[in-house]
Write a structure and sequence with these properties.
Elements: E1 2-10, E2 17-20, E3 25-28, H1 44-58, E4 65-70, H2 74-86, E5 93-95, H3 116-122, H4 169-189, E6 195-202, H5 204-215, E7 234-239, H6 244-252, E8 279-286, E9 298-299, E10 329-330, E11 342-344
Parallel strand pairs: 1-6, 4-5, 4-6
Antiparallel strand pairs: 1-7, 2-3, 2-11, 7-8, 9-10
Helix pairs in contact: 1-2, 4-5
Length: about 350
């Protein structure tokens, strides 16, 4: 099988949570099925979006989607489940933290997604055999109230463990480039000879970094609005050189495999090269399949940072919300302030603000 097309989507509208950046404490207005406060489910509107997205994805042919790779956060897995159901529930979802959320540098630990066995109990098509390119250390064991599943038939071995203290903007792009190289190389190597497509399910900041790593175009100003991360939008990337040659090139230039204690291996993708022979973006955040059209657009406006890492001063107890601080900017013109920490919200059910997450 040779991957000639990659589709990328962002999760749908989700419910909100808050973060007290003075203490590093996350709190959820609505409990998460994984019992991780920041691992929020979709809001009712996001569920509607996910079903509309499923209809659009199911229509894709020549080549059709044969594999799905997703951020392991609940909102991404919930977003893609209607599409999996449309396929008869026979396609597994491969969770990969290389596609996961971007958290900025901090003095406290950011949350990690739930372990694979927990996600398998919540989503029966979640693969526990797949070895992701990048995963966090699960330093906090599941509580007894979390759903549990029987042990996987294959071991779940970490391939890279990023710091729970967050990432800089450059580290985010490097992480996505490495993850894409590993994902594409694996998909190319799997059996079969026909051209195929894969689907990536991710978050706003990661979607932008993915687009840049695939095309090889890193703008001098990272705040440039190049790739459009609307909720449940669809972006399409086509390989510049396809067929057996592309797969061979990927294998010949496979990057060093990460091992514990090393930084993320270098991937030479900038300067227009792109990962795995390079890709052209032929569809950028299309939302024609959604009743609400383009919603919750976002772009970078600086490094996301907290506490001593902050690039913009915010007084404890009256900090700017995610909509207004240096973590990024909304294309939407909603703005708000909340006391006691930053609010991470994407739907009116929890407030009027929104975020990249």
């Amino acid at each position: 099988m040779v991957v000639t097309t990659i589709y990328v989507t962002r999760h749908g509208f989700r419910v909100n949570w808050t973060l007290n950046s003075a203490t590093g404490t996350y709190c959820a207005n609505i409990p998460s099925p994984t019992n991780i406060p920041s691992d929020s489910p979709l809001a009712a509107y996001g569920v509607q979006q996910s079903h509309q997205l499923a209809i659009a994805l199911a229509k894709i042919k020549n080549p059709q989607i044969t594999q799905v790779y997703s951020s392991p956060f609940y909102r991404c897995l919930q977003t893609i489940q209607p599409f999996i159901d449309k396929l008869g529930g026979e396609m597994e979802v491969r969770g990969d933290n290389g596609l996961g959320e971007w958290y900025g540098l901090a003095r406290f630990d950011h949350p990690s997604p739930a372990p694979p066995t927990v996600l398998r109990a919540l989503f029966p098509t979640y693969s526990t055999a797949y070895t992701p390119s990048i995963i966090p250390s699960y330093h906090s064991p599941p509580t007894t109230t979390q759903p549990q599943a029987s042990p996987p038939s294959h071991p779940y071995t970490p391939s890279i463990i990023p710091s729970t203290a967050g990432e800089s903007l450059q580290q985010l792009h490097d992480r996505c480039a490495y993850a894409l190289t590993r994902i594409i190389s694996l998909a190319d190597a799997e059996t079969g000879s026909e051209a195929t497509a894969i689907l990536l399910v991710t978050h706003a900041a990661s979607l932008i970094a993915i687009g840049r790593a695939l095309t090889g175009v890193m703008p001098a100003d990272m705040k440039v609005e190049d790739f459009r991360p609307f909720t449940c939008g669809i972006s399409k990337f086509v390989r510049r050189s396809d067929g057996a040659g592309a797969a061979l090139e990927t294998m010949e230039h496979e990057v060093e495999k990460w091992q514990l204690g090393m930084p993320i291996p270098h991937v030479d993708w900038k300067g227009g090269k792109g990962v795995a022979s390079g890709w052209d973006c032929v569809m950028n955040g299309d939302c024609s399949h959604l009743d609400g059209g383009e919603e919750r657009g976002w772009h970078f406006s600086g490094d996301e940072s907290f506490g001593d890492f902050a690039t913009t001063v915010g007084a404890v107890g009256l900090e700017p919300s995610r909509d207004e601080d240096p973590t990024g900017s909304l294309v939407d013109d909603e703005r708000k302030m909340r006391k006691g920490g930053r609010t991470y919200d994407e739907h009116g059910d929890g407030g009027s603000g929104s975020s990249k997450l």
